[in-house]
Amino acid sequence: MNFFSKYLIGGEFKSFGDNIITELDVIKYWNDFPDGHKANATVEFVDTIDAPQQEYIEDRGDCGVFICMFMEMIVSGVPVKIDKPRRAARFLYRNRMTNIIWDTI
Question: What top-level branch of life does the organism fall under (predicted)?
Fold first, then answer.
């Protein structure tokens, strides 16, 4: 059984979604929001088919690069295009991340 089938039958991903609000209590996340905000909070998982993905090669160390580029896509609202092979994309993504980090310091 893979993660997606677990999610569909209410397994691992569902339990994470059910518990995330409680986990936010532990770190006092809600303290910076007005009263009642927590009651309206919802957690929703969305399947994304166009997310940048790394090649599956053990110990490559690319997962963080691809996760950061996916988060950049979410934050900026601009799709991260993959018009290059994944092997070449990882170098382009690392370069882009470096530019983003050093331009904001």
Answer: Eukaryota
What lies within 8 Å, CB to CB, of 12 at 6+ separation is 3, 6
Which parts of the chain fold into alpha helices (H)? 3-8, 12-26, 63-76, 86-104
How many angstroms separate the CA atoms of 50 and 58, rounded? Answer: 22
Secondary structure (3-state) at 78 = coil
First to last CA, the chain: 44
Q: How far does Cα 3 stand from its chain's mean position? A: 16
pLDDT, mean of residues 61-74: 76
> For residue 60, what are the contacts with CB-CB under 8 A and spacing of at least 6?
54
Give dist(CA 105, CA 89) in Å, integer. 25
Reduce the DSSP state of residue 25 to 3 states and report it.
helix
Long-range contacts of 57-63 (CB under 8 A, 24+ apart): 62/90
